[in-house]
Design a protein that fits this description.
CATH superfamily of one domain: Aldehyde oxidase/xanthine dehydrogenase, molybdopterin binding domain
Distance between the termini: 31 Å
Strand order of the largest sheet: 4-8-2-16-13-14-15
CATH topology of one domain: Aldehyde Oxidoreductase, domain 4
Mean pLDDT: 94
Helix content: 25-40%
Structural class: alpha+beta
Shape: globular
CATH class of one domain: Alpha Beta
CATH architecture of one domain: 2-Layer Sandwich
Number of strands: 34
Low-confidence stretches: 10-26
Radius of gyration: 28 Å
């Protein structure tokens, strides 16, 4: 089955009345081109190299013994029977390894650190937590032997949800943690709130919930570790988004200097945030390889991925908003609780979701008075990680639902209410009540264009036709901004002991004129090999095919923060652009020396250095490179010894923005919800490669639709995972999607050298709110509405039945 089609509009298109649809930005020769990805030929031909493809002489395989209980005392662990099994080389418990652990911390008094042991010692805190590891000649023998390990358990009551965790009689997930609260942050407050709400003409409120999700990358977590005697290094090939952070974690947990650990990310089959934290399994595999002095590999299976890996997005918001009679927001008050599971993930900690939610809830809207409290609540579930979007799908859902509720109460058009409250074009840069400064964006323009496209493409007529045919049908919108390219000025506000943000790149031209770019970012499917090449090629006047990207190797870059939070093109690409500019200056100076001209008069184009205004005065870049390396004695002293430069970039961060529109149709017999139409009007600044941007939008929207209508990790009352297979956890397929219309606006960022803004999470951020609003519009004639995701067919049936009998439709759902 083919996937959903993408219909793209690009600068120069116009509406039927002749008005231009989009604003555009200047492009280079290569930046802005829809080039095919350089990575695709090897991937499509099965020549990618993933951790599971790697092999070594004497390779051993690891399998973990995992807890069947959500909460229990570990009375004893006997590995003797496993050690006697065929092919078993070793078995390790926490005591055998010396009880190493990972510790993620914030420098905040409100934060409670929770050391995460590599292998649980005397206590397990979620079903699936590892208590031992078996290392054998092949993966099947290791799995068989793991079943022979004898563990004596003393089960304890489990805490399985936010309400249960915060109740007065709740068992403690960690001893001494009151109310199972690992962080409690009053981010903003305003003493005027009581008076504002008391006198406001309109107050709307709601409880908004989202289910726990699994990132579900095509390739699960994986690691191969081996000791290299020659270099005195523990070399790890890891499927990760953050190689340097894996190196730091392994060094800290095993008591090694960082120079003794090398982490290499080969091809990585997706991450979605799951792989931007460090898993205990990877560090355990490293510990086993270090002790045995033999290579050890572990590849996560799908059941482990769904039950024992990192999850995300399980949150509850209790929010109220005050509005004036004209519809202007007067105040916003939010209490945010995030179910973060049993431990803080290294290095971001469990605070990342409540911090993000409380800091950025106002979004694209002007809120004059604001209070936000964010809490991370520990439960006996798998830990959470910064899953794609990190609270922003939820905060956008909250704000867009509040807009819909207020518009209905005021009897006004919900899109007009949004416009009234949006940050206006003339107000940028705008500093909000949350202390965040928003750079220039196209908030109103994207909404205006989306509304015109919906009307001009006949959506309303289609909705009415579906309704006339007996279907429930509706249209929903979502407007949002996506903060991207977080540098250390922004990340430091979280007070992490490890503060990510900056990144570094090296650009080097070799003696044949080919270019090598090394970066601390680490792509895992985003097309970095192509987009970085386009940026650097424009700066140096070469073809992108002449540019080779090296990434994901801790021995290539002193320190880099990897790829997450839509940062790579803004920060990594910015660093590469700066380094390329320096190499371009070197080339101009060498050309000036050889052509007896001023370097300022030299331009680099189409593989040559030319003197402006003189078509005859030119020299090939490959010839310049040959001279710079092989005949350096012919050059002035300052120009000798190669062509290379290193640069770092550490921006304050920028904001992409978008407006999403969705149409759904609901079958009245089965209550099944189908996506019927979808539109994205997005602005990520200068678009480096439209094909790659479209792919990111399509993938993000698909994940967001799945969060709205399909995906949900469930646990029973004893903390047992009830979504352990793909029969129970429902990822989307092409059959659940419809064609996407994607329209690009371009508001170049003034805060980075490329003008680009990050956009990898935007599709996921906007889709849940747009789809939920469409569902509620469809069911509005019945008086049913929902403030939770996902909305399943059973929820619709129950709501319609309740509405028919005069009950209370909607509700929180089974998040």
């Amino acid at each position: 089955m083919t996937g959903p089609a993408v219909h793209r509009s690009w600068p120069g298109a116009a509406l039927a009345d002749g008005r231009p649809e989009e604003r555009t930005a200047g492009r280079g020769q290569w930046v802005g081109r829809a080039m095919a990805r350089k990575e695709d030929p090897r991937m499509l031909r099965g020549r990618g190299r993933f951790v599971g493809d790697l092999t070594r002489a004497g390779l051993l395989h690891a399998a973990f013994v995992r807890s069947p209980f959500a909460s229990a005392v570990v009375c004893s662990v006997s590995t003797g029977p496993a050690l006697r099994a065929p092919g078993v080389a070793a078995a390790f418990t926490a005591a055998d390894l010396g009880d190493p652990f990972l510790l993620a911390t914030l420098e905040r008094d409100e934060f409670v650190p929770t050391p995460m042991p590599l292998l649980a010692g005397d206590r397990v805190r979620f079903a699936g937590e590892p208590v031992a590891v078996i290392v054998a000649d092949d993966a099947y023998l290791a799995e068989d032997a793991a079943e022979l390990v004898e563990v004596e358990w003393d089960p304890l009551p489990a805490v399985t949800g936010i309400s249960a965790a915060t109740g007065g009689a709740a068992p403690a997930v960690h001893e001494g943690v009151a109310g199972n609260c690992l962080v409690d942050l009053m981010m903003f407050d305003d003493e005027r709130l009581g008076e504002i709400f008391a006198s406001a003409p309109l107050t709307v409120s709601g409880v908004f919930t989202s289910a726990r999700l699994a990132a579900l990358p095509l390739e699960g977590r994986a690691c191969l570790a081996e000791w290299d005697d020659r270099d005195g290094q523990l070399v790890m090939h890891v499927s990760t988004q953050v190689p340097h952070q894996v190196r730091s974690a392994v060094a800290q947990a095993l008591g090694l200097p960082e120079r003794a650990v090398r982490v290499i990310a080969p091809d990585v089959g997706g991450g979605f945030g799951l792989k931007c934290v460090v898993g205990r399994e990877e560090v355990t595999v490293a510990a086993a390889a270090l002790r045995l002095r033999r290579p050890v590999r572990w590849v996560e299976d799908r059941q482990e991925n769904l039950t024992a890996s990192f999850h995300g997005h399980e949150q509850r918001y209790q929010v109220r908003a005050a509005f004036g009679a004209d519809g202007a927001i007067l105040a916003l008050d939010a209490d945010i609780e995030c179910d973060v599971g049993a431990y803080s993930a290294y290095p971001f900690t469990c605070a990342v979701e409540p911090l993000m939610a409380a800091s950025e809830l106002p979004g694209v809207y002007k809120v004059p008075a604001y209070r936000a409290r964010g809490r991370a609540i520990a439960t006996n579930k798998a830990p959470t990680a910064p899953y794609r979007g990190v609270s922003r799908p939820q905060i956008v859902l909250v704000m867009e639902r509040l807009m819909e509720k207020a518009a209905r109460a005021l009897g006004t058009d919900p899109l007009q209410l949004r416009r009234l409250n949006m940050i206006s074009p003339g107000e940028f840069p705008y500093t909000g009540v949350n202390g965040i400064t928003y750079d220039e964006g196209s908030y109103r323009e994207s909404l205006d264009l989306a509304e015109r496209r919906v009307a001009g493409s006949g959506w309303h007529a289609e909705r009415d036709a579906l309704r006339g045919a007996g279907m429930w049908a509706g249209i929903g919108y979502a407007c949002f901004s996506e903060r991207t390219g977080y540098g250390t000025p922004t990340m430091s506000l979280r007070r992490m002991r490890m503060t990510p943000g900056y990144d570094t790149a090296m650009v080097r031209m070799d003696p044949t004129g080919e270019v090598i770019v090394t970066t601390g970012t680490c792509g895992h499917g985003q097309g970095h090999e192509t987009t970085f090449a386009q940026i650097v090629a424009d700066r140096l006047g070469v073809h992108p095919d002449q540019v080779r990207l090296r990434q994901g190797d801790t021995d290539l870059v002193a320190y880099g923060w990897g790829t997450f939070a839509s940062r790579s093109i803004v920060i990594g690409g910015g660093a590469a652009a700066r380094a390329a500019d320096q190499v371009a200056d070197q080339l101009r100076q060498v050309a000036g020396a050889l052509l007896e001209a001023s370097a300022a008069d030299v331009e680099l184009r189409e593989g040559c250095a030319r003197i402006r205004g003189d078509r005859q005065a030119a020299i090939g870049l490959s010839e310049l490179a040959r001279v710079a390396y092989f005949q350096t004695h012919t050059l002035p002293e300052a120009l000798r010894y190669g062509l290379e430069a290193r640069a770092s970039f550490d921006p304050p961060g920028t904001f992409s923005n978008a407006c999403h529109a969705a149409m759904v149709a609901i079958d009245p017999g089965t209550c099944a919800i189908r996506l019927h139409r979808y539109l994205v009007v997005e602005d990520c600044g200068v678009v480096i490669n439209p094909l790659i941007v479209d792919g990111q939008v399509l993938g993000g929207v698909t994940q967001g639709v799945a969060a709205a209508l399909l995906e949900r990790i469930r646990y029973d009352d004893q903390g047992q995972p009830a979504s352990a297979t793909l029969m129970d956890y429902l990822p989307p397929t092409a059959a659940e999607m419809c064609p996407l219309d994607i329209v690009h606006l371009q508001t170049p960022s003034r805060l980075d050298d490329t003008g680009a803004k990050g956009m990898g999470e935007g599709g996921m951020i906007g889709a849940p709110a747009a789809v939920l609003n469409a569902v509620n519009d469809a069911l509005s004639p019945a008086g049913a509405e929902f403030d939770h995701i996902p909305v399943l067919a059973g929820d619709v049936c129950a709501a319609l039945a309740a509405a028919a009998t005069g009950g209370t439709p909607g509700g929180e759902g089974a998040a």
